Amino acid sequence: MNVLLDTSIILNKILGNKADQDIKILFKWLDRSKCQKVIHARTVEELRKTEPTAFLSLSLSEFKVIQEEPAEQNADGAYLLNTIASNCADLLISEDVRIHAEAKSLNLADRVLDIDQFLEKVFADNPEMVDYKVLNVQKIPFGKIDLDDPFFLSLKKDYMGFAEWFQRKRNETAYITFNSKNGKLLSFLYLKIEGPEENYADIQPAFPQKKRLKVGTFKVIRNGFRLGERFLKIIFDNALKHKVDEIYVTIFDRSDEQKRLIALMEKWGFVYWGNKGEENVYVRNFVPECDNENVNKTYPFIPKNRDTYIVPIYPEYHTELLPDSILNTESPEDFVEDSPHRNGISKVYVSRAWEPHPRKGDILVFYRTGGLYKGVVTTIGVVSDTRESFANKEEFIKYCLRGSVFPEKELKKMWDYKPQKPFVVNFLYVYSFPKRINMERLIDMGIFKGVNDAPRGFYKISKDQFESILKETASEGRFIVD
After folding, report:
1. Which CATH code fits 2-129?
2. Contact at 8 Å (CB) between 358 and 383?
3. Which of the residues 126, 236, 318, 452 has an alpha carbon 20 to 30 A from that of 269?
């Protein structure tokens, strides 16, 4: 596969920025997956002029150089997209949001990837190449975390006094994941609850008085496993648990790493507020409200007045897709966080069920099959999108692969199995029931009519039945909006 790299990525490579682990990881997996690295002639000339000293360290022999395109392709990124459109390269890797927006308008989005998307593609296509596991998210004291880990280099560079601050927090806790092969950190999250009396004199415009969750430190290294979304769910779960009115984060926007994190948070409803010194301030309203057309923006809140469906899921797929809903009878060691479909908030459910089908904004209650005593409802999701038709098998596989538990070969079988093609639901993983109720109890409650009434497709239930499930499972009611 010929993979074109944009100017910024090559620049970071030749500058040898020790804090930029993303670039090292990218080039490692380009080599391991035997991709042909491609560089555009215009990138070569630009770097020769702007970074003449660093350019000398660039070994052009490891790249295939694409020659200059016609003069009319002068706009930023246009010559790169033209290279993809003319099939001179298979993929373009870029962190530039403008290039991605233009690629979408040209129907090239599936061939223009950021680093995370490329790594996800590599691991989905070649799962046998992944030689380490990302261990489950752990919550541990600062004092047990190695501050000398290379993971912290960029934070030490950006925040003067970071090491001293870290030492002061030694008895407080942070969420982390690490590479089980070498013990190095892959992600880190520190959260702090702040009351209405908190002093925000250094934030402009001034914050009104509210109870807030501060995202104190948040960093995730690229590894193709969607750990960013996994940690965002932890942020939202904490905000829900502590009944805050708002979440906020202060962050620089100097590096690609920081810009990537900002883009991720904006996708999930964070908006620019103002500044704290040189840092930008982003806030996320957490007063319960729903937007049925863009459920990401108001996640994890779901509307009570939408249609609700019980959805069956086989035991072998249940905890793979919904890891926070693990049963007491299952071992967490069997579900290490090493797959994108486990970590993402966004999930894909593939079905052959006839109508009724859910619509965007509808509620899903997942039922882990298993009969009268082992069949249990475990999880709530909300539909973010649906697809009933695809141009061909390849389009179906591309659409499903990122968030589905099924590998490519299984998706191919599902497509070929019957003339009737699958119906696909994109949903957001919202809530795991604190208490599980089995099929026997669901029959007693009048949800199912009997043992033979277990759902085989999307099983629509009434609003009163949904209310009774929430009550019986001892669910937190704040995420349900009237």
Report:
1. 3.40.50.1010
2. yes
3. 318
